[in-house]
Amino acid sequence: MGLEAIFNPRSVAVIGASADERKLGHIILRNILDGGFKGKVYQVNPKRGKILGLKVYKSIGKIPEDVDLTVYVIPARFIPGPVREAVDKGVKGIVVISEGFRESGEGGRALEEELVGVVREGRIRMVEPNCQGVNNPHIGLCASWPLIKTTGCVAVVSQSGTVGAFMEIMLEEDGVGLSKFVALGNKADVDEIDMLRYLATDEETEVVALYLEGTGDGRKFMDALKECIAKKPVVILKSGRTEGGAKAVSNHTGALAGSSRVFEAALKRCEAISVESLKEFYDIAKLLSYYRLLRNNRIFIVTSSGGAGILAADMLQEAGLKQAVLSDESVERLRQVLPPYCIIGNPLDLTGSAVAEQYKMVVEATIKDGYGMYIFIFGDPVPGATEITKDVIDRYGRIVIPVFLGGVDVQAMEVEKFRKYGIPVFPTPERAIRALSHLASLQRES
Amino acid sequence: MGLEAIFNPRSVAVIGASADERKLGHIILRNILDGGFKGKVYQVNPKRGKILGLKVYKSIGKIPEDVDLTVYVIPARFIPGPVREAVDKGVKGIVVISEGFRESGEGGRALEEELVGVVREGRIRMVEPNCQGVNNPHIGLCASWPLIKTTGCVAVVSQSGTVGAFMEIMLEEDGVGLSKFVALGNKADVDEIDMLRYLATDEETEVVALYLEGTGDGRKFMDALKECIAKKPVVILKSGRTEGGAKAVSNHTGALAGSSRVFEAALKRCEAISVESLKEFYDIAKLLSYYRLLRNNRIFIVTSSGGAGILAADMLQEAGLKQAVLSDESVERLRQVLPPYCIIGNPLDLTGSAVAEQYKMVVEATIKDGYGMYIFIFGDPVPGATEITKDVIDRYGRIVIPVFLGGVDVQAMEVEKFRKYGIPVFPTPERAIRALSHLASLQRES
């Protein structure tokens, strides 16, 4: 009864594919095809004719071969029959996109219970009614929308389709990439506990980003969370923290948000990374996609912009990190290699005349001081920023976080290069440092 | 001795224009030409030949007509002579881009003092040595870089070139636009006090964004600030708030950052909007470019995404705003006009099936409740989002802040439309609400 059939099926059938481009039944089928799914794709529809070049089967039972996964995009009331047929055929995973279940009232609740009964009896797993589907870009399976194809190591598990889509879109735009996506919807069967257990051992996933509105069994959840965190970091955005938010949660999913303070304390004990806004949720997942280790919390800032360097220094202190002090030897070496107009200190201000090579010279001159992390602020058009950063990382390990701002065309080109190397680059020093502070808390706690 | 000649000159001469595309002397001249400056442009260079199609004058004195503004991009040591010549010719404003003054040591300090002596004697004003220049896109005068052409009502005054450029680039990318830009550099003559006084009466400026590392005369500064705030809101990002940051300020500009707590308290008394990060600095300037008035702090959230709505509800409470309660009459009206699957409450969840028209229906059904602001969260591809928002604003005033996320292509199109109308749209509910909370504090205080 694993989730493997849902995330790594050898074949998939869309039940309710549509020829109408605006309909979800069309979009889902098209995304599976355009995503380049490596297995077999079928579609089931009572109407005749082809859709997107695929033969139409009148029912799942008519498909002559085995089908691992079925995805339902038909009205709720028509779903139990075809799901029963799928179970009879030996299908191993079910994804129900359609809405109209528990969230819509009594009749929907009964339908949902019927559905759960069918899949439990068949001993297979089901991702939700009322959800935005699943995606595994590593095999091109985007049984969801929007179409996200960039592979990476961040898994997104979201109780909200929009929050999930927001994360997926950012991960794609920034070139960070996705390992698995699931929108949990009503959590009638598969829930966050199942997902944490599954992702703990998923080889393509190195970071888990989990958006939650509430959780059923608190103890089981914390156990699964600990199990997952023992293997890889988990970032959690939990909404319903305030009274108003909790009331909204209860309206949205009928769940109780639970006591925010108790939950927060439990997360902390588990060493989960708890965040409070979408932006932070994304920034930390992005940082963790590349940086896992902060040897110590003494941070050194190298900048071409005095102003951005000062803002970084303020943020370091406010985030509980340490502005490292230069050793006398390092000051001496820096004086020898840098032009006299550079301001030697921390931040080390290369000034607006900075060239990329100087950032590397600073690391070489100070490497013996053993800082936990360098922050390279490219606060002007600095061509070659990416190659120099990559050079330093190749030589000394992942000890540099790049920030690029104010660089217009050069910035656009360099940021594109950073993306190709998979090195996360941040748009302001504050956002980099805020994310870094969570990495620091992780090392202290473990 | 006004700043009018610097921001609204009828003619400008670049001293040290270069034929080499990579040099600042070339970039500045090109930006003035490409910016579409409406007055006369001259260039001065000891070499022969044309640059960018313009005749070369050997010295400012050789230009046969009057010149209002001269911009210097030649090495520091060569500047005092040509500035003296400019004063003699009757030039009314000086902008010195070149570095190599006070920030570079004793020799530079002497040069800077000499320069200040010359302009004071000539009774004209000078923007800085060691700066990124000035821009007034309303007359196409970009004596700075990058080239920013989008006109708007936000003035950016920055002690850091990079922080200033960051703001300009965001204002341009988001279509918010710029009224005036100045990088204050060493503040040898024109400083933040002059700028606040100038911008207070500048008709093109409705919002002032000021980045400061330190200020000389605290009392004069607060007087100028109050004078400006009486006319228009001022957002201040002050760096050097922490010990580490203050030390970096002193290294950067030689100034004392001053006591952060005292300064913060003084800003609060003046009703300035004080922020702590670049992102917030920008978000609030952007919000204020369109929204000035929050009638009351009872906020109503309309959303297509349950999750984003809950996050907004949490953030409302955390930011000290109020989640408005629906009147019984409004609930009744909403029940009549909305489909039964919509979740009536605050947030009002139209669900993923939301269509743009419903957002307007919600406002119409609840307008009698007199909320201070509606937040429209378009958390899916919702075509027509812009027109509906514009409709509501045209009819009821600026009572809607739009947020768009998770909408991929439709989002890109709609955000472009929002930009055309000059309506700021935010990428997450948290960022909109955080900015809004500053607007709320402004109304409470005034």
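qc> Chain A has a mean pLDDT of 93.
qc> done
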